[in-house]
Amino acid sequence: MLAKYIEEQLIEAAIEAFRKNLPGQVFVEKPENKLQLNNTNYPDRLIIFKIQNKEITYFLEVKNNITTPAIGNLLLNKNKLPHPLLLITNHVTDFLADNLKRKNIEFIDTAGNGFINQKFLYIFVKGNTPPDIFKHIPKNQAFKPTGLKIIFAFLYNPELINKTYREIALQADVALGTVGWVMKDLTKLGYLVKIKGKQRKLLQKEKLFDRWKTEYAERLHPKLLLGRFTGTIDGLPLDLQKNKNILWGGETAAEKITNFLKPQITTIYAKKEQLNEILLKLRLKKDIDGTIEIYDYFWTPKENDNEETVPPILVYADLAATGEQRNIEVAGEIFKKYVIEYLKEN
DNA sequence: GGGCCTAATATTACCATGGA
DNA sequence: TCCATGGTAATATTAGGCCC
User: Fold this and answer.
1) Where along chain A do its domains lie?
2) The whole model's pTM is what?
3) Number of other CB atoms surrounding residue A232 within 10 Å
4) Which of A29, A175, A287, A337 has CA 20 to 30 A from A343's CA?
């Protein structure tokens, strides 16, 4: 989550830059009252453009940087809203501008680039560079890779929230000191409170998950990739499955859960130390363009967990991260059917 | 591409506190 | 007093940018 003052600065700068593209034609209003939206955690504000006696209302989605996974999340969210969604971001590169345009995601950035596609107004500007002040915006510890591991551990196993820092560090596979940083951050951001003296409680789980899945895809998921391979896979090695050391993920897991998707990429999550054994058993060959991806199995499975796929929250995050329309639709189904269970407030 | 420098991030080791 | 726990300063590691 961006700090509020940075978010405000981004909005102001982007609007100002956008105004310069159309001098004298744009008026902006920001309603004072925060909106209450059913079944939607964000965005929490809207913006009204008045152009040539016509008016359009947008919900705002503010991002420091926009990436493929973030685009996937925007596609997931934009159809839930009663008004169109306007992305405000630091900088949209030429490539990204074309990509957003193709996916009909409207945006403006601090450099003056933008894409507006309404019946009475069409604007597409790209190629401008942003001002220096927005180049380095600090991130919260909670949404750095180790923090993301901890948040996942809490969402996957809610009981962990009231374990000791040492137990949390062990389960999430991070250092003890990291837990302290992350807990402090989550409290500061309003996702964690202490009740009845010592009990901890996770708040706004859906909002936290929404943020997690975006940051996971951008910051942790790429780090977990152990390699890409080619070969033919008929099934997972049974002995490794029994020990819960190897699971299907991504599109492959989505296919097994929903039967809707025909996977183009085979995704496997496995313990790093067993990679060589897996490659031998499945006869896989390293290939940077291969369609079999193996990721590091970074969490600790629950005792009673006997699934052959990774937890649905991870399947959902993996699908959203691809930014592919066909995966986004299946991700939506998985959310309604499975993910929502993990996000219930207790 | 390699070497260097710097900043960001993660871990380790230690300290303070509170309860038994 | 001892031990478990939460908290944090110091240190190590990693990543990214720049120059040659």
Assistant:
1) 4-125, 141-203, 216-342
2) 0.70
3) 9
4) A175
- pLDDT tens for A32-41 read 544 444 344 4
**In terms of Cα–Cα distance, which of A229, A187, A224 is closest to A208?**
A187
**Side chain identity, residue A300:** T
What are A145-176's pLDDT values in tens digits? 888 888 898 888 888 888 878 888 888 888 77
| CATH number, domain A4-125, options 1.10.357, 1.10.10, 3.40.50, 3.40.1350 | 3.40.1350
Interatomic CA–C1' length for residue A115 and nucleotide B18, angstroms: 58
For the domain covering A141-203, report its CATH number.
Answer: 1.10.10
Q: What secondary structure, in 3-state letters, does A99-112 show? A: HHHHCCCEEEECCC
pLDDT of residue A137: 47
Q: Give A273 CA → C13 C1' in Å.
A: 21
